[in-house]
Amino acid sequence: MRFFRHAVISLTIAAGCAVFIPAVAAAAQSAGAPCGATAAACISLSSHQAWLMSGGQVTYGPTPITSGKPGQRTPPGVFRVLWKDKNHRSSEFHNAPMPYSVFFINTGIAFHEGSLHSPSAGCIHLSHAAATTFFSKLSVGQVVQVVG
To answer: Is 81:106 a contact under the CB 8 Å cutoff?
Structure first.
C-alpha cells in the first residue's frame, strides 16, 4: 500500500489500530467544502471556514474566517468576484486598512486580511497567509458561494 503525505486520514478500528486510506482522504477533503462545483471560493458562515476550489475539488483550505457581526451579517448567496485591491482602505470605516481585498458583493463586502478574533462589518476576515492566497488565486468574474 502506498502512503501519500497530504492525502491521508486514519480510521480507528475496534482493536485500536489505525488504518490509512489515501483515497478516502481525498474524497473527505472535497466533501468538506459545502459549495457547488462552480464555486472558486466557498465560505461556510456556520463553521467559520473558507476554501478555494476548482471543478468542485478543494485546492486550498479549510482556513479559519470571521464574518459579519449582528446587524451587519455577511449575506449567504452566490456572487462573483467584482474587483481586487491589494492595498485597499475603507472609505466607510475611517480609512481602515483592508489588505488583499477581493470584493464580491457590490455593497463593499470582500475577503481581506483581518482579525480572526473579532467579527467584521460584513467582510470575510482571513489570516495574512490566507488573504494573500485568496488574492492571488481569485480572478474577476469567478464564483464566490456563501452558505449559512
So the answer is: no
Task: Enumerate the domain spans of the chain.
Answer: 1-31, 34-147
- Superfamily name with CATH number, domain 34-147: L,D-transpeptidase catalytic domain-like (2.40.440.10)
Q: Which residues contact 16 (CB under 8 A, 6 or more apart)?
A: none
pTM: 0.76
**122/60 Cα distance (integer angstroms):** 22
Q: What is the mean pLDDT for each group of 10 consecutive residues in the chain (148 residues)?
A: 36 34 34 89 97 96 95 95 88 76 92 92 94 97 96
Distance, C-alpha 77 to centroid of its chain: 14
